[in-house]
Amino acid sequence: MSDNPKDFSVNRWLNEHGDDVSNHTGAYKAFEAFKNNRKGARFDILMADGRRYLCAYSYMSFGMYHPRGFLSFSSGHGAITIEGKGLEKLCDLLLEERVKRIIEFNPETDEEPKEGDAVVTKVHIKSPLDPHSEGFDG
Q: Whole-prediction pTM value?
């Protein structure tokens, strides 16, 4: 696989590395939930360029959902804002600690989501630990 972010495909990564994706068809999914109402201790965020962030539910202290397509929360060492459409279910699953993975859409490699499906169009992460972040102080 190339190091060029434009060559990265979240769907290909999920097929190669993801668990619980045996039925994955290659169609974009904005998020994955744990099955059978199981709760998790942490979740990850897959960025369109291939970066992967790990978040622990135990460090989430504040969150906000706005129906215009924004979902923001603090998680340990950073603040995360998710932009997109149809994020209500994602918000509900985060509240229940059932989100396993949040996936940022990459229009260059991902299939277009179906009309009405959730889509994460952009993830902003502000963290002093991340050199790609607006808040990096390393």
A: 0.75
